[in-house]
Write a structure and sequence with these properties.
Layout lengths: L5 E6 L2 H10 L3 E4 L12 H10 L3 E2 L14 H16 L4 E4 L10 H11 L3 E4 L9 H11 L3 E4 L10 H11 L4 E4 L8 H5 L5 E4 L2 E3 L18 E3 L1 H10 L4
Parallel strand pairs: 1-2, 1-8, 2-3, 4-5, 5-6, 6-7
Antiparallel strand pairs: 9-10
Length: 242
């Protein structure tokens, strides 16, 4: 049996979803706010992305930056956003909830799983915030998550080769371990040694500024980003073809 390798792209706009599909990615994790690590995209963004691409679409459900311990109002927003994703025909969502002590919130996560069905569910990097990753992995398996996006509890996946290898071994095909954060074509060969078969990257670069006039006194315009198609293609080309 051949081993299938695949790439998920963290896409911060519809244009990046289109680039991801063209480059050979199988999935787009659609987000807003790259500076804050990704938050829930707008209804219009999700709807247009679903209309424009045929690859799997997994919007992130994250109402704000920071931790994954949410109050009642935030959790209600998340549940409403899950319903929006289901109504718009998304394939799944990327999400995570934690308790005050940092552990996975099993009660709320179970509610999420039930509400999201039949969509797939990826655990986002709430996993990397857990005090015991080995316990957290078993909890996510018990919940029925498809995969866990993880940097191996380091700032970037390339710094956590040993931990990622152990996670793949512990998962034992019960859940997909998907290394993400800092993933580039330059480190894919070392990340492949972990045994992981799915990888996550934004491969983001600054979007070209097409506006001819800029007021030099106003500096709070932000820095829009877009996926680097050539980098995505390089990553896909590095996957073994066995």
């Amino acid at each position: 049996m051949s081993t299938q390798y695949s790439l998920e792209v963290c896409a911060f706009n519809v244009q990046s979803c289109i680039i991801a599909e063209r480059a050979g990615a199988v999935r787009a994790e659609l987000c807003d706010n790259p500076v804050e690590g990704g938050t829930t995209p707008s209804y219009g963004c999700i709807r247009l992305a679903r209309e424009k691409v045929n690859i799997q679409l997994y919007p992130i459900i994250r109402p704000r930056a920071g931790n994954y311990f949410y109050d009642e109002e935030e959790f209600e927003i998340m549940k409403m956003d899950i319903k929006v994703c289901k109504d718009l025909g998304c394939d799944g969502i990327s999400i995570g909830v934690q308790l005050r002590n940092g552990e996975i919130d099993m009660k709320r996560f179970a509610e999420i799983m039930k509400l999201a069905y039949p969509m797939g569910v990826t655990s986002n990097r709430v996993f990397d915030a857990a005090p015991d990753p080995w316990k957290a992995l078993e909890q996510l398996i018990e919940l029925g998550c498809e995969r866990v996006l993880t940097s191996g509890q380091k700032s970037g996946a390339p710094e956590a080769i040993d931990t990622l290898t152990k996670l793949v071994t512990q998962a034992d095909e019960r859940i997909i371990i998907m290394p993400g954060a800092g993933v580039r074509s330059s480190n894919i060969p070392s990340l492949l040694t972990t045994g992981a078969r799915e990888f996550h990257t934004s491969a983001r670069i600054s979007s070209p500024d097409l506006v001819e006039h800029r007021n030099p006194e106003v500096l709070d315009f932000g820095n829009p980003v877009i996926a680097d198609e050539n980098e995505l293609k390089r990553i896909v080309q590095l996957f073994p073809n066995d």
